[in-house]
Amino acid sequence: MSPAVNRQILLASRPHGEPVPENFQLVESPMPVPVPGQVLVKTLYLSLDPYQRGRMSGSEKSYVPPIPVGGVMQAETVGEVVESTDPRFAVGDAVIGYAGWQEFAAVPAGALRKLDPSAAPLSWNLGVLGMPGLTAWVGLLDPGAPKPGETVVVGAATGAVGAIVGQIAKIHGCRVVGIAGGAAKCAIAREEFGFDECVDHKAPGLAENLRAACPNGVDVYFENVGGELFRAVLPLFNLHARIPVCGLIAHYNETALPEGPDFTPAVMREILVKRLRVQGFLVMDSFPKYPEFIGQMAGWLREGRVKYREDVTPGLENAPAEMIGLLKGKNVGKKVIQVGTQGAAI
Amino acid sequence: MSPAVNRQILLASRPHGEPVPENFQLVESPMPVPVPGQVLVKTLYLSLDPYQRGRMSGSEKSYVPPIPVGGVMQAETVGEVVESTDPRFAVGDAVIGYAGWQEFAAVPAGALRKLDPSAAPLSWNLGVLGMPGLTAWVGLLDPGAPKPGETVVVGAATGAVGAIVGQIAKIHGCRVVGIAGGAAKCAIAREEFGFDECVDHKAPGLAENLRAACPNGVDVYFENVGGELFRAVLPLFNLHARIPVCGLIAHYNETALPEGPDFTPAVMREILVKRLRVQGFLVMDSFPKYPEFIGQMAGWLREGRVKYREDVTPGLENAPAEMIGLLKGKNVGKKVIQVGTQGAAI
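YS: structure for the whole thing
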């Protein structure tokens, strides 16, 4: 019944700067066989997220260990149970876990969670109903603490997290200004996601354009980009503004600190004079809040108050190119690779 | 009864970088005459504080307007009422207010607060019982939120604020590591103020020495210096560490951003990965907490749990040189200029 091989994508070498196709290797491995306590899962969708770039590097400290060279690329995945040694999972069950960039994986049953396929498209559990959705929700509402009438700025405005941040901020009565790369993305942020304004960071005059889009200053900046965007927002903060730090995609491919001058004193000065609160957060600290989140988010989706856009590419073999593209802002919406088809014979 | 003249120190010109004596001018002005609603105050002590450097600059935005060129240098002062048009103040009363760098001032009665001379030496109201004490107390306990057993690091460890931060942290059960300039100051921090360790930032190997002094990492860094000290602390933060940003004395004399590389991405990365909370604060936002503060601090002083050290220089004419010195770390303890003598004929 099982095919002879399991296609996997390995980390062939660590990238220096931007990942290149040679950092990845597609291999055919023997089909995994679940030992007692494990479940054999067929991958349906795998999630591509900027944080995965950090795990490809070996030298930098991060919040989780790096992927070993020669190891399977890691990712959150939605899959289908094809063989189970655990009474909690039956063949055909839809599950979410961290099976990585491969067609099949033998996963400890305790590391899987069953999904309800009737509640929403299964892939949404990798986005608006999953880790990116929770990231947006907890980061905006907790360290961001937006109040009605305040101005919220978010970068990567059509990305998996940014688009949701903006829509939750709108629900909370804020004026929402996105920043995105290109006029097409900005149009989507405004027209599809309901942002009040969106500033194209690829057009000249980012700082001036952002200032014009924020006539009342900035009360919350949801930081998921860094670099030039942060410098453009910095002079616009109102007293007691909040900056949840969620990610820094502009820096993930950097191999050294940028050239000077050193802006740190200017940043610290704004923090002092404006009494800013800059707060790093990681979604993994907030997993206990998932039930509360999912209750709210499912309601907003049902009521049409949150719109969700996926950018799905079929074929495991396309994951490397799509990951490289993600780090350059090629995607529009949540990037997902469709690896297999539900219910199809394996 | 009044002398013919009032000696004042004016801001003669704005400093470019380090203030120089030529930025100040000692003048003899006519004795001020209080109009109805004003009180004529003889200055006994004036407070020198790093924040005053910011008010000498015209171009930079700060949290208060700059001193105009030709205007009297601003400072908090303790004085004695010599003439009053307001029933709340009588001749001989000790008062605190913002009379500036001058021997006499006619001050609106509403801008003065009466002091109890029997409670503590009058000058202490400019330090441990006043603005610097409240700054240390509110900044450490509010955004700093120290817990027993945690490691608290504070720079300018023998300064007006740093010495008090460290002692309050000790009272709250923390391990306290100071940073100060020179072995003599470090000895004072340890022996007089009870710090567990103090690292000399003028000795070679600041980063290594600080790491050795913080074997369990850093949970709270009370930031009142910036620059090299901040970079030395940055790699030592524990998860969820807090950084109250109180001041940046290392940068106050800078005329441009430092040379590169730009450390901002490294700072933001630590904020993200360690989930740091960096929080600017200004004491003026916390004046309503003054009664609570003074109750605790007066008790600690009475019980000998907080030691207080002043660095008093007599003579208004010495204020410029002492201000220049303060910005270079010349003082040990709270810097105060004694301008006049209590009860003496004017």
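YS: worth flagging: Chain A has a mean pLDDT of 94.
IM: good catch. Also The first strand of chain A starts at residue 5 and ends at 11.
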